[in-house]
Amino acid sequence: MIAFLRTLLLLTLFCCGSALADQTFNQPRWFDDRLDWCLTWASNCGKPAADRFCTRRRFTAAASFAAESGVGRTRVSGTDQVCNGPNCTGFRFINCSGPISSNRVFANPVWRGSRLDVCKSFGKDCGKPAADAFCVSQGFRSSSSSFQDSTPGRSTTRIISNNQLCDQNICVGFQMIVCQ
């Protein structure tokens, strides 16, 4: 029995690798640039930026991390701004912990054939309320995190509370929702 369980564990690790274990990212990047030490311009630095990086990679949080100053060009993940100069600080590494099971992660979630809108009602209850409603519809308690498109108007979206379509240049969809 123990040999069978050991073999099953090894097969699972071989098949699914980092989905089952903590992972360290050296000199992490945000798009094509080094990840900036701050989540928003010169604020929410360190843990908030590291946690966001980890949740975007389907982990619950950053367990450890370290700064590296003078790295040149960095990108602020919360605002997508760029720091370009000798005083930019990035991460030397981030260790992400608590891998999130893939059945709790919904990338580009769809509601009734269209991208899910970030607002639960047209222009109201945006972000967590809409993500929570989606998670409940999928059999979960609520959402633990969500990320929206950085630019409005990328595609037609559907509002979860009334199935109304939003096809204007102000419509924003979710990139990812993590349910709990």
Count of individual beta strands: 18
Rg, Å, rounded:
19 Å
Beta-strand portion reads: 35-45%
Number of domains as seen in the coordinates: 2
The biggest sheet, with number of strands, parallel, antiparallel or mixed sense and barrel status, is: 4 strands, mixed
Count every helix, treating DSSP H or I runs of 4 or more residues as helices: 3
Shape: globular
Order of helices and strands: HEEEEEHEEEEEEEEEHEEEE
Spatial order of the strands in the main sheet? Answer: 2-3-7-8
Average pLDDT level: 89
Structural class determined from secondary elements: alpha+beta
Low-confidence stretches: 1-19
Percent range of helical residues = 10-25%
Q: For the record, give the distance between the C-alpha atoms at the N and C termini, rounded to a whole number.
A: 32 Å
Descriptive account of the structure:
The chain is of the alpha+beta class. The chain folds into two domains: 20-99, no CATH class; 102-179, no CATH class. The chain contains three helices and 18 strands. It has helices at 2-16, 47-56, 128-137; strands spanning 23-26, 29-30, 33-35, 38-40, 43-45, 59-69, 74-75, 82-83, 89-99, 105-107, 110-111, 114-116, 119-121, 124-126, 143-148, 157-158, 165-166, 174-179. The strands form six sheets. The protein has a four-stranded mixed beta sheet, with no helix packed on it. The protein has a four-stranded mixed beta sheet with strand order 11-12-16-17, with no helix packed on it. A three-stranded antiparallel beta sheet has the order 1-9-6. A hairpin with a 2-residue loop joins strand 11 and strand 12. The longest helix is centred in the first third of the chain and has 15 residues, at 2-16. It starts with a helix and ends with a strand. The model is unreliable at 1-19 (pLDDT under 50).
